[in-house]
Design goal:
The chain is α/β, with parallel strands linked by helices. It folds into 5 domains: 1-171, Arc Repressor Mutant, subunit A, CATH 1.10.10.10; 173-261, Serine Threonine Protein Phosphatase 5, Tetratricopeptide repeat (Alpha Horseshoe), CATH 1.25.40; 265-427, Rossmann fold; 433-505; 509-597, Orthogonal Bundle (Arc Repressor Mutant, subunit A). Helices cover 51% and strands 11% of the residues. β10 (385-391), α15 (394-397) and β11 (408-413) form a beta-alpha-beta unit. The radius of gyration is 32 Å and the shape is globular.
């Protein structure tokens, strides 16, 4: 990689991808001035006048020589050539121009314009994307010298021209829906530029938003009258008249290339190589995701307790159908049940999705409502699969549902998203013994399993069909090849130490259960459920009823039923038939631990509720 100088944003120099420290305003100024003219000589007088300015003393020439010497010492170890050469009357930076982002930007935009002129639309689009992505903020940000400010203005004008040229390309290709939010942000940031206002009017008109297109003209007329005391230019006035009479010349030509130029989103995590079983659930997801008969986005919500494999299923299914979505797959971890981390707010999640769809930070609206509207606009004509993993509740995901009827969504959560409209639901339960065995055989060392088949079965049994527990067990065995399966099986057989044995590195069944309980305890309506959870954990039986819970805690049956329903929603209980609830053994062990720790211990009740 060598040296790279970045001035399209805060000034930065890197060596082999790592930041290089360059202290001193004059050193930065001299190197920047040379970088802007890389490969060409810069007279010493010009460097002195621009970098030293009015403070130039009689020793300034000597100071310049010292600065150049220091720069050579810093840069020479990373560049074979004479990095700063002394030439007649000045100095020259011998660094390939593509190593300086401002020159690379100009090079890419020239290539993009040439490709567009030759009809190579996709190539031009890709080049514009690469060029505009080089910008990290205002050019030469933080440099206050007048020459630097002038260069910043020049470079910013180049950026705006490239952005607008790219928009023209996208409008020609029928990408008018997607450019509306980009142009809206551009117009807000540059209110006196008429070209993007004309582009926005055309994009809105082609998106069947004629009244909004005319609103843009009225706002333009107001702004230029107040700021400049003039009327809008001829181009805008003619465009307004064409919109009013619905001039067919404004329509996208039938022979225009109707390509979606935005590159497909590819954010999906890697598939789980050891994914096992779940054939029925995968088939259900496949059918659901490709069903477009409703004319609405397809939403498939997978819910179930922590550690049951919801995320693995969603990612596996998304990989299987990804090629059906021309605009790719967007993925967001909503952190609804991640130990030690706060769930993403809807606005944070929208920001991530909007950036995935090509908006930079400046183009993302500042409020949730505006961001949601822009997201709906961007996705209205897309064929996009969105994976919303580990959702907290329906309120978190509702603004994240795309608008396009060709879009689809997979949601995973611990509670059912019952209040989401037009959503298909799948409850994921623990693996049966055969599937649990198959998973363990895939993730554990087959030779060790073959040597101790009985111990392997004991481990599988104690994991209770929970994929997370099975994976942790296999990971512990892999980490200690000197230990037998029997030793782990004995640890898991001890109820007082089973959860301790189901921890490895950053994985822990105890943490997975605790997150659900913590969320419950933060809710006012969850206080009863939290107390009931601790009390039920003291029972040896896994099955509970409303009547039994009422008798155990001394509550009216209605209050007990509400508490049990909250535990069911949180994934801490499973439905075991009408009026009956089941608590997984591993969840019961955690409930018992917490009850003892919090002093909730009562005499053990051995009879079934």
């Amino acid at each position: 990689m060598g040296l790279e100088i970045k001035i399209l944003g805060p000034w930065e120099i890197t060596a082999n991808g790592k930041p290089a420290v360059l202290a001193g305003e004059r050193r930065v100024g001299v190197l920047t001035r040379l970088a802007l003219s890389a490969g060409q000589p810069v007279p010493a007088e010009q460097l002195l006048a621009q970098v030293w300015g009015e403070s130039m003393a009689t020793t300034a020439g000597k100071q310049l020589h010292i600065v150049v010497s220091k720069l050579r010492g810093l840069l020479a170890p990373h560049q074979d050539d004479d990095i700063i050469a002394t030439v007649s009357g000045g100095y020259q930076l011998n660094l390939p121009r593509e190593r300086i982002d401002a020159h690379l930007f100009s090079h890419l935009t020239r290539r993009a314009r040439a490709a567009r002129a030759q009809g190579e639309i996709a190539t031009a689009d890709g080049l514009y994307h690469r060029a505009l992505a080089l910008w990290r903020g205002d050019a030469l940000a933080g440099m206050t010298a007048s020459w630097a400010q002038a260069e910043s203005v020049r470079l910013e004008e180049e950026r705006l021209a490239a952005l607008e040229d790219h928009v023209d390309l996208r409008l020609e290709a029928g990408d008018h829906h997607a450019v509306v939010p980009v142009l809206t942000a551009h117009v807000e940031a540059n209110p006196l530029r008429e070209r993007p206002r004309a582009q926005l009017m055309l994009a809105l008109y082609r998106a069947s938003r004629t009244s909004e297109a005319l609103d843009v003209y009225r706002e333009t007329r107001r702004v230029v009258a107040e700021e400049l005391g003039i009327e809008p230019g001829l181009t805008l006035r003619r465009l307004q008249q064409a919109v009013l009479r619905r001039d067919p010349a404004l329509d996208l030509h039938a022979t225009a290339p109707r390509a979606t130029l935005t590159r497909p989103v590819t954010e999906l995590p890697a598939d789980v190589r050891a994914f096992t079983a779940r054939a029925r659930e995968i088939a259900w997801l496949n059918r659901t995701l490709i069903d477009t008969r409703s004319g609405l986005p397809t939403v498939a919500a997978v819910h179930g307790p922590g550690g049951v494999g919801k995320s693995a299923l969603a990612v596996h299914a998304a990989h299987a159908v990804a090629d059906r979505f021309a605009d790719g797959v967007a993925y967001v971890d909503l952190r609804g049940a991640t130990a030690g981390r706060q769930p993403l707010s809807p606005f944070e999640a929208l920001g991530r999705l909007l950036r995935s769809l090509g908006l930079d930070g400046a183009a993302i609206p500042p409020t949730l409502d505006e961001a949601a509207a822009r997201y709906r606009s961007l996705t209205s004509t897309r064929e996009l699969l969105v994976v919303l993993d580990d959702a907290l509740d329906a309120g978190q995901v509702r603004p994240l549902i795309p608008a396009g009827p060709a879009c689809a969504v997979i949601i995973t959560s611990r509670q059912i998203m019952a209040s989401l409209d037009s959503t298909s639901h799948l409850r994921l339960t623990r693996l049966d013994h055969a599937d649990a065995t198959a998973l363990f055989l895939r993730v554990a060392d087959p030779d060790r399993v073959r040597d101790e088949p009985d111990a392997a079965q004991r481990i599988i049994q104690q994991c209770g069909g929970l994929p997370l527990a099975l994976r942790i067990s296999a990971a512990r065995l892999a980490a200690r090849p000197d230990r037998t399966l029997s030793r782990l099986a004995d640890q898991l057989a001890d109820p007082d130490h089973r959860l301790d044995a189901l921890e490895h590195a950053d994985l822990a069944v105890r943490d997975s259960i605790a997150v659900s309980l913590q969320h419950l305890q933060r809710e006012r309506a969850g206080h009863d459920a939290s107390h009931a959870f601790l009390m039920l954990g003291m029972l040896e039986t896994p099955i509970h009823t409303t009547v039994g819970t009422s008798a155990l805690i001394g509550w009216p049956e209605g209050r007990a039923e509400v508490a049990l329903s909250h535990l069911l929603d949180a994934g801490l209980l499973e439905c075991a038939g009408p009026g009956r609830y089941r608590m997984h053994d591993l969840i019961r062990l955690h409930a018992r631990e917490q009850a003892i720790r919090q002093g909730t211990l009562r005499s053990t009740v051995s009879s079934q509720c």
